[in-house]
Structures are given as C-alpha cells and as structure tokens.
Design a protein that fits this description.
Layout: E1 3-7, E2 10-15, E3 28-33, E4 39-43, E5 49-52, E6 54-55, H1 57-63, H2 80-86, H3 89-102, E7 110-114, H4 120-127, E8 131-135, H5 139-149, E9 153-154, E10 167-173, H6 182-192, E11 193-204, H7 209-219, E12 237-238, H8 241-250, E13 253-259, H9 263-266, H10 272-284, E14 289-296
Parallel strand pairs: 7-8, 7-10, 8-9, 10-11
Antiparallel strand pairs: 1-2, 2-6, 3-4, 4-5, 5-12, 11-14, 13-14
Helix pairs in contact: 3-4
Length: about 300
C-alpha cells in the first residue's frame, strides 16, 4: 500500500522503485535514509543513484504546477534585449548551450527542446539561426513561454508528442533527473531523431566533487538536514558517467562527448585561477552536473 508524504508544500503518494536501466533483478545498496523515510540507493549494476520510495507519477507532475517550484517574478516587464544586456547566469548558460550544439550541428537544422521551461533556449537558438521548438508539460511555465517569450512551445509529455518534422538535435537539459521513467523519455526522443541525430543533455553528477563531499558529510552526521543536495522530491536520479552511458546505450544512443560546467563558467568569472578550475572541471567532469552529447545509432530501429 502506498503512503502519503509531504516535502514542504509538496504532498503526494510514495511508491517503491528500482533502477530503471538494470531493473529489480539487480540489487542496489541503500546509502542513506532521510528523515522523511526516502532511501537513496546505488545500483550495483550501473551505479545509478536513485530515490526510493519516491512520488508516484501523478504526484510528481503536480509539483510542476506550484509557485514553489519556479520563481516567475523575473518575467514581469521582461524583454529579450534586457535579458541579453543583463547577461546573468540564465543567459550565459543558454548561450553556452547554443555554442555546444553549434560544435556538432550546422545552423538551420531542426531542434526540439524537451522540458523547455519558459523557452529561453528556444528563443536564443532561433535567434542564432536554428529552427527550434519546445515542449513543456507544466502549464505554468508554458504560459510564460507563449505569452512573454512568444516562442513555439507545445504542452505535452514527450511520449505523446507528435510532429510532421524529424529532428537533428534534441535538448534534454535538467530533465532526466525529474522524469518518472527516464528510459521512456530517451526512447521517445530517439524515435524523433533522424539517423545519426544528436541528443544534448545535462544531469546531476553523483560523482561530482561537491556532491560527493555533501553525501559523505550527510552519512557521517555532520550535515543537517541530510542529503538535501539530492533534490527530492523533484529530483529522483543522480548519474555518473557509467550509469548515464548504460542508460543511453539501452535506448539506441551512444555517448560521443562528456564535460561539466563549473559555476565559475556559468557566472562568467574567468580570472586566471577561476579559468584553471573551469578547464579542469570541463575536462575531467568534476562539477555536480554532467553535460553529455549522444548520437542515435544508425542501426537503431525505434521502439
């Protein structure tokens, strides 16, 4: 029987789960249990870190319709010109995403931003010559995308998305850690890609230096409240290079590039010492998020 739990303003039904890649036949080790009874487990097969029990699918979707999930106050009196001129972290990260994609795909190709939130990437990608649209299941965020940014966005889950277009690139930025079933999301994306098409994604990095330190402090009782850095209830997975690669492989995708972006890079802090950290974090994936580029395998027949 499921039980109801609350995390601040979020209330929902909890259910026990397992590693979505390796399934229940592969054992997992519980590394921490928080006060709310949520366990954090590491799969013995692929190394994925996952929360169990966690919110049910219906309860998870309700999270993204609350004001506590996203602060939309910056969009009052917002304009693209003001956003670019201010050049805050949201603009710098969005511009870096476009530059990453430009390293692998030429301009004017079709892009789909899955879980596009308020549509900032869709806006900037179209400004720089791509043909980009988004999908966003949260009606709260969709309203901003359509009414304020005025970008092409559909409200749906990726599994239900239908288009007459095929896509050369799909963006899954800060999405898979929120997904009830990330394998289902990745397979749906692979089905929409042209052969050899690319997926660009970012996910939490369980082997990032700060993540590992915070996890250790939680486990020895020196960090209270414990394990909040994982991000439950909205985050239910954290990856490392092995677990991410295994999940992509199961979904017809192969990893072609990995890096990670330091907060110094995202904030535009590029003095000499900070530049050294930026370069090291990027090359050796030291930060708490992994940036990954994956290609659809030519032989993938879809699912």
């Amino acid at each position: 029987m499921s039980r109801v739990a609350s995390f601040g303003p979020f209330v929902g039904e909890l259910e026990v789960t397992c590693c979505p890649t390796c399934k229940a036949s592969t054992p997992a080790v519980c590394v921490f249990v928080c006060d709310e009874g949520i366990g954090y487990h590491r799969c013995n097969g692929c190394g994925l870190l996952f929360a169990s029990p966690r919110f049910s699918e219906i309860s998870m979707l309700r999270i993204y319709e609350t004001g506590e999930f996203a602060d939309l106050s910056p969009y009052r009196n917002w304009s693209p010109e003001m956003w670019r001129r201010r050049a805050d972290r949201t603009y710098r990260t969005t511009a870096q995403k476009v530059e990453l994609i430009s390293r692998f795909l030429p301009p004017a190709v079709n892009l789909l931003d899955v879980g596009c939130a308020t549509g900032l990437f869709v806006l900037e990608a179209n400004e720089r010559g791509f043909r980009c649209e988004g999908i966003e299941p949260s009606s709260m965020l969709l309203t901003i995308a359509r009414d304020v940014l005025k970008v092409p966005v559909s409200t749906t889950q990726i599994e239900d998305f239908r288009s007459e277009r095929t896509f050369n690139g799909i963006i899954l930025w800060d999405v898979l850690e929120h997904a009830y079933d990330p394998m289902r999301v990745l397979r749906a994306c692979a089905n929409l890609l042209v052969p050899g098409g690319m997926i660009f994604l970012q996910v939490p990095h369980a082997d990032g230096m700060s993540f590992r330190l915070k996890s250790l402090l939680s486990m020895v009782g020196l960090k209270k409240p414990g394990y909040k850095h994982f991000g439950v209830p909205w985050h239910v997975y954290a990856f490392n290079r092995k677990s991410l690669g295994a999940m992509l492989q199961h979904c017809g995708l192969e990893t072609v590039h990995l890096e990670s972006w330091s907060h110094f890079l995202k904030d535009g802090r590029e003095s000499f010492p900070e530049d050294v950290i930026i370069r090291a974090a990027r090359r050796f994936c030291l930060s708490d998020y992994i940036v990954c580029v994956a290609r659809k395998r030519q032989e993938y027949a879809g699912s």
